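Predict the 3D structure for this chain.
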Amino acid sequence: MKQAIIVLYSYSGNTKQLAEILIKQLENYYEVDVISVEALDEPDSFFKQAARALFRKKAHIKEENINFDLSGYDLIAFCTPVWAFGPAPAMRTYLTRCTGIKDKTVLFFATYGSGAGKNKCIEQMRSLLKKQAPGKTESLLVQQFELKNEDRIIKKVNEVVKILK
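Done. Predicted structure below.
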């Protein structure tokens, strides 16, 4: 069976909820592993978090049991909230350190509140991996309120997964 991995950062739980739906759908086609990225230096203040994201700062992340070599996977999904037009600093750190992406299928999943900067977040994530030359890439953006309608999210996730088959 093919191998998939989901690399996940979730602060409030919204992105984790999206990742759990993604896991269920991918398990129909792949053996799925999950990496939860955890920031060690994350401020408690929303404004400080947003400022770090806006200025494209990286976070110090917990490296224990974290695999940065993704070469053993057929499909790689990165899930993050959108913070100030970009990925959360913990995800930014992971994206700059991971390897083994060349010619791989990569999914970018992001949750957002207002919608400002959601497309820029995906662009930044793609840019951070550009030198590694991923193969096919797809993205899915989900607004927080949409998470209440799991059937709708499942449909959106399945549409993205079908594109990749």
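The beta strands are 2-8, 30-36, 75-83, 86-87, 105-112, 137-143.
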